[in-house]
Amino acid sequence: MTIAPADRSELLRLARESIEAGLQRGRLAPLPATFPPTLSAERATFVTLRVESTLRGCCGSIEPRFALAEDVWRNAWASAFADPRFPALTPHEYCGVRLHISVLTPLVRLPVTREEELIASLRAGIDGIVLQLGASRATFLPAVWETIPDPRDFVSHLKVKAGWPRTFWSPQIRIWRYETESFGEDET
Questions:
Q1: Whether the model pTM is above 0.70
Q2: Rounded to an integer, what distance in angstroms lies between the CA atom of residue 35 and that of residue 83?
């Protein structure tokens, strides 16, 4: 599904509006009652905030639970105010924030049981990956390949994000891949 330029602009507008409402209310505001029907399909998204080139927040959903517009609304707010890596966004910081949205394709299970199989199957720059073992789950968006281009390092860093040692592996780890359609305020 390709997101039309007008819909991309609308999603970026909704993300900004969600953050502005959060700055005013101190909590997640209700989604505006109307949005285009093209944004009503359930989709999973991530919203990334950057100040200059520095990450300032990134939250999202791996599996679709809400309409695309609502998922962006919720994730924009979470990225600004509920990312545990950062304090809540301040009005001063908001002035310099640039937004980026990634819309995920459905997850596809990878039937691999060995780390070497996973590394060999990865498509650098294309694949987002989810690793899960029990209740521990972590993902990297395809954009992470820009900073971690080596597949072995990509998997190693993702294991650390999941709370596991870099050298850990278990044949019980479940793995999914996905792609994203990504766009930002400077790209629409």
A1: yes
A2: 26
